[in-house]
Amino acid sequence: MRTKPNQKKTIHRQTQQTTRKSKIKTQKRVLYIGNLENNSRKDILRSFRFYGPIKRLWVSKCGTYAFIEYRDPGDAHFARCRLNGGTIGEGSDKKIIVDWADIQ
């Protein structure tokens, strides 16, 4: 079956378009957040929601570390790149650690 010339152009344009998420090769979605200063769940969510929808957040009882799961691996990748070494909450100068969680 032969396609119309207009259809070929549409298909070609769609294959050329790339999003930031399609360039990410990892399928990891869960991040470890360490070196927290008893930050509330609201502070953590406020900082991490900016990068995409969050599926789950777990904060330790002592409040010094947490795990966060994004719905999309691309969002997790960008949050990891942007927030590692940053701070959470007002008046905090303690730099947090954001890295891939080692889930087995």
Question: In a few lines, what is going on in this structure?
Answer:
The chain has 104 residues and is an alpha+beta fold.
Overall number of strands: 4
Helix and strand string, N-terminal first? HEHEEHE
Low-confidence sequence ranges: 8-19
Structural class: alpha+beta
| Count of alpha and pi helical runs | 3
Silhouette = globular
> Numbering strands along the chain, what is their spatial order in the largest sheet?
2-3-1-4
Estimated share of beta-strand residues = 15-25%
> Helix amount, in percent?
25-40%
Cα separation of the termini: 49 Å
Chain-averaged pLDDT: 82
Radius of gyration: 19 Å
The largest sheet, given as strand count, sense and whether it forms a barrel, is: 4 strands, antiparallel
Overview of the molecule:
This protein is globular. Strands 2-3-1-4 form a 4-stranded antiparallel beta sheet, covered by helices on one side. The longest helix has 12 residues, at 5-16. Residues 8-19 have low confidence and may be disordered. It has helices at residues 5-16, 41-48, 73-83; strands spanning 30-34, 54-59, 65-70, 97-100. It has 104 residues and is of the alpha+beta class.
